[in-house]
Amino acid sequence: MAIHAAPAASRTAAAPATGAAARPARRRRVDATYYLFLLPTVALFTLAITLPAVMGVVYSFTDSIGFGEYRFIGLTNYAVLFTDPAILSSYGFTVGFALVTVLVVNVVAFLLAIGLAARIPARAALRTVFVLPMVVSGIVIAYVFSFLFSTALPRFGSALGLEALQTSLLANPDLAWTAIVVVTAWQAVPSALLVYTAGIMSIPDEVYEAASIDGASGWRQLRTITLPLLAGYVLINVVIGFKNFLNAYDVIVGLTDGGPGTATRSVAMTIFSGFQGGDYAYQMANATIFFLIALVLALLQLRLTRGRVAVR
Amino acid sequence: MSRRVDVPVTATLLLCTLAVLVPLYVTVTMAFKTGEQAVDGNAFSLPSPATFDALAEAWRLTSFPRAFTVSVLVTLVSVVGTVILSSAASYAVARNWDRRLFRWSFFYLLGAMFLPFPVLALSQVRLTGLVGLDNPAGVAILHVMFQLSFSTLLYTAFLRSLPAELEESARLDGATTWQVFWRLVFPLLAPMSATVGIFAFLASWNDFMMPSMITADPALQTLPVVQNIFQSQFSSNYDVAFASYLMAMAPAIVVYLFTQRWVMSGVTQGAVK
Prior knowledge:
The structure holds 2 protein chains of 2 kinds. In chain A, α6 crosses α7 (about 175-200) and α10 runs antiparallel to α13 (about 280-305). Residues about 1-25 and about 305-310 of chain A have low confidence and may be disordered. Chain A has a domain at about 100-265: MetI-like (MetI-like fold, Orthogonal Bundle). By secondary structure, chain A is an all-alpha fold. Chain A contains 13 helices and no strands. The radius of gyration of chain A is 26 Å and the shape is globular. By secondary structure, chain B is an all-alpha fold. Chain B has a domain at about 65-230: MetI-like (MetI-like fold), CATH 1.10.3720.10. Chain B starts with 6 loop residues before the first helix and ends with a helix. At the A-B interface, α1, α2, α4, α5 and α6 of A face α1, α4, α5, α6 and α7 of B.
């Protein structure tokens, strides 16, 4: 621990053009330590991520059932995939669910961010509460909501005499997906809210002051200043959110486990079904298609965020 | 300009906090109810009498000490592994950006962004089984690998903003690359490591998909996974189930309350700019 930042910095003046910068023409030798820092990680990554990815694509062209012998059958799995009602319905559900959830999450997060930027007391405490759902385990909070939807709400409905509430939302094939949207949104609003808050803070106060002097109302300022200036942030939240919601799994397992019937089976759940019933290679093909969709969305996200990614 | 409090907005926001607080309130109150009161149909009542019986029973049914230990170990390896591997790799990349190998390795590591777990699950489960990593150790390694792209991005951006003069003068004093990194650069990375570490913690602690798929032995499952016994075997013991949910979510909430500054800045650093 002999190196301290301050004295080291003061000595830089005494070390002028003697370093690598002095002879840019010659390629400098790379210290072996740098290879030690990078290559084991790259090797591990190749074994843990790249190898399974390649293996998945290769198996998708076979009739493997997960063990034993198998043959290459070309594009057969893919051809079947596009006409399989179970697969098509899982994509239909997942995409529809992701679209609705993106809409709900962004409307709620945007309004909360605007609200938190207003003249309010205890701003920090309110923000702490609104961000909290982000740190709660998805499966556990889904179990909690499952109880609320299936037991607490119906009894509450009976007590109030409200017929619509009296049966469990989760047992209704046409409405169970709304419960999944609610719980997913509950978890996803915080990160979208934080992104919008950063966006709002990036707008200089002077813009609003000038607008106030010109007599623009609060609503008008929101419509003509805040919303257009946050358009880029909306786009980022929409793309990131959509990409994440396509992977929906935990919350669905906790709420409906894909039911009633197969009404809420997501793509991730169908892929995992490849462990049973001899569908191994077939679901590998499904995973490969799913990967291509994720790839397009990730490239879109990279473009929008100019090289940065977001966590959830 | 007036500095008055905006009353309608404040009232609306307070009302909105109920959406967050009510599910948590139900979890806490149910955990302290008696078995009899838990099934009486009123989810929103306070426990009377309040009892620790449900917590004790949940502790026993989920083998809490064992599941908690597995969760802690997986999370610990995942956090330490993510911070060390991604900071060292980022340092190598950032300081050798003119070299093709380093530049390409960086983009290669970012590739995991395109590969969510469901895409890789079928092969990963098979491979971890083949090499004897169908256990919490395998889960921890995969957690580190899936965190690499995000963490490497954050670290390299931060490393580019560090002045090169600091390192150059340390080298003139005879420090090796190894020493420069561990004694000078790594401590300077501390704020970024806090953000990277907290996200690795949350992703690992709360994960359900990977441990439930990868770990073959149910006795070695993490806390989120063992909660499923209340969906099957003990599905009507609401008080015990909620006591168990409370014990599973409490650690992450406590960590969040102390580290929210880094949690919040991490989201914006990741998404914005």
